[in-house]
Amino acid sequence: MLNLVLFGPPGAGKGTQSQKLIARYNLVHLSTGDLLRAQIAQGTELGLRAKKLMDEGLLVPDEVVIGMIGSALKDNQQASGFIFDGFPRTVPQAESLDRLLAEHETKVSCMVALEVAEEELVKRLLERGKTSGRPDDQDESKIRKRVTVYNTETAQVAGYYANQQKFHALNGIGAIEDIFGQICAILDEHQPATTEGSRQATDEVKA
């Protein structure tokens, strides 16, 4: 099973690359924000607990988020692997994810972080804000705060995966296909059992 932790600040291109990776490797995209919204909409026990905390202005605790990820793993047992988007954000979360995946007899294959200079991110997000309708894409000070929070949060998590020889940083500026090819090469490196077809597809991307 191929399990990728995909990191990158807002505007780095994670969404674009995720969709291409999902199509190439038959992966399931797990975003904690999407999981929270889905659980709340479905009125599950975890969703109701999360909603109560959020309504009170409190952060959703790690055990609730891990519980939601665990439910998603059970619901997608036939998947070839998962893309964890924006999670884990702390070392304790990374440790919890390792334990959860071990229960499902799998593990994180690698972590890829798309690196983009802050000024480029601000430029991209302000441009995206013209069409996204998101207020936090239209306020430069909020954008810079989001980037700062990302950098602060991911530094320790990057170290955690680096100690496992699973961390890779890539330049997030460039042609989409070029960046995609680099990610595919990393995935194949960490998943030797990947089918020959996937390796051939990677070679075609690089060509």
UniProtKB/TrEMBL annotation:
InterPro entries: Adenylat/UMP-CMP_kin, Adenylat_kinase_CS, P-loop_NTPase. Its main location: cytoplasm. It catalyses: AMP + ATP = 2 ADP. AMP binds at T32, R37, L58, L59, V60, G86, F87, P88, R89, Q93, R134, R146. Residues 31-60 are annotated as: NMP. Its EC number is 2.7.4.3. It comes from the Bacteria. One of its GO terms (biological process) is AMP salvage. It holds the Pfam family ADK. It is found in: Cytoplasm. Catalyzes the reversible transfer of the terminal phosphate group between ATP and AMP. Plays an important role in cellular energy homeostasis and in adenine nucleotide metabolism. Belongs to the adenylate kinase family. Consists of three domains, a large central CORE domain and two small peripheral domains, NMPbind and LID, which undergo movements during catalysis. The LID domain closes over the site of phosphoryl transfer upon ATP binding. Assembling and dissambling the active center during each catalytic cycle provides an effective means to prevent ATP hydrolysis. Monomer. This is Adenylate kinase. It comes from Hymenobacter metallilatus. The lineage of its organism: Bacteria, Pseudomonadati, Bacteroidota, Cytophagia, Cytophagales. The gene is adk.
